[in-house]
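Hi L., both proteins are below.
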Amino acid sequence: MTALKAVLPKPKSIAATARREVEHTTVVDTLTRELFTDPDTALDYLESRAAGETTCLLDVGGYFAPTLETVHSRFTGRLAGVIEDTENGHRRYEDLDKLPCPVISVARSPLKDPEDFLVGQSVVFSTEAVMRGRGDILHGRPALVIGFGKLGSSIARLLHAKGIQVTVFDIAPPFAP
């Protein structure tokens, strides 16, 4: 259906073995926030990978947001749009005055809800495992969940269901999808 031009894995999220596997078939570049902060640098990068082609950016964290308008207006190809996978990234695009192309949010898709629940389960399970390894148990202990977005609220609900006294802290009011 399309040609994958490059993968820019998030530096703290990539396993070395996974990177080596992807490098067998696809260009893997180093991702930094700075790469897409300066419009000229971002444009140079996209031109080096997809000059003159219709391109869709798959983003995980709003990396392309700072230069989207400039890149869209100066790119020799056609920027068909951006697919953003995270709530934080979605908010970066939402903060732009005007979107020059479609930005589709996977973060706010109902299809992602099961992922948040499963990640929440994994966090609670792993926390219990760490505590057991220290000779302690989670039951009967108070818990603080920082952040009450989709993931934080899932963790808080799961802890509460285990009889844990949960306190939640969030600096922003909850969003309404």
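That was the first. Here is the second:
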Amino acid sequence: MKAFVVDHYGEDGLELADIPTPTPGRNDVLVDIRAASINPLDKMVRNGEFKRLLEYKPPFVLGHDLAGVVTAVGEDVHEFEVGDEIYARPRDLRIGAFAEAIAIDAADVARKPGSLSFEQAAAVPLVALAAWQALVETADLQPGQKVLVHAGAGGLGSTVIQVAKHLGAFVATTAHTKDLDKVQALGADKVIDYTTQDFTRELSGYDVVLDSLGVASLQKSLTVLARGGIAISVVGPPDPGFAKQIGQPLLSPVMYLMSRKIRAQAKKLGARYSFFFMRADGNQLAHLASLYDQQILYPVLDRTFPFEDTPEAMAYVERGKANGKIVITQ
């Protein structure tokens, strides 16, 4: 089958290759991939930014999000059958959405929302799981609390806004002038135009901040938190909890040192800091599918690319052009 594999770590490491079609294990489903989406995580994995934490060994197939049709099931799989339309974010070390087929642990799979096309469904798993886990599990968000979401027009931010509103929060977000109407339509209660406004002058007393921009933004975000609030970053320094999550507790001291400064800053302000890295979860995807089918949530797509143009789609995302999710189709 055709697949885009990371032949070696680096910006030029993604190559089209012919590889064997995978064979599903006892607990797996084999999926004919109809669409996959691109995430910043794909660039980070391709460039080797996680190579000491997630031990991918080149060559390996890239891609973290997909939707498709089940073509075979392992002997211990009873909840899916051939012909089921599914969507998934395969677990770490078993990714591979930029291909014609993939074998996925059935625990990571859910039936595709019936109201969504394959292209729309492929845009959902990673960002929807990230939004749900960050707000529900990490932040324990309660109705009436205040949430600041940075980059609200992006693939992750646009989903976090919707999930936070569903959970009953008051939501503020930062966005470019051209995207103000878009984030308001998503449900944002207060919108900060970052080209003309400083969010630290406009906001205060927030219970949760979700940052996807970097350390500078994260440090500023701490100042708008209420005492007891939490700053969650998907790009900031990893903390000791992340070492445990990925099954490498020996790295906890390293991550303690890496995050010491930001954690100390948060503590001084009476707040907390948490690095966030989402995990695969088919049961949560099944719940989220019901929210999409009820039109409580909806995917935000920028554009689609044909499968053979996957490198161009990656480059489009890396140039910061995407205003929503980028999807590759087969």
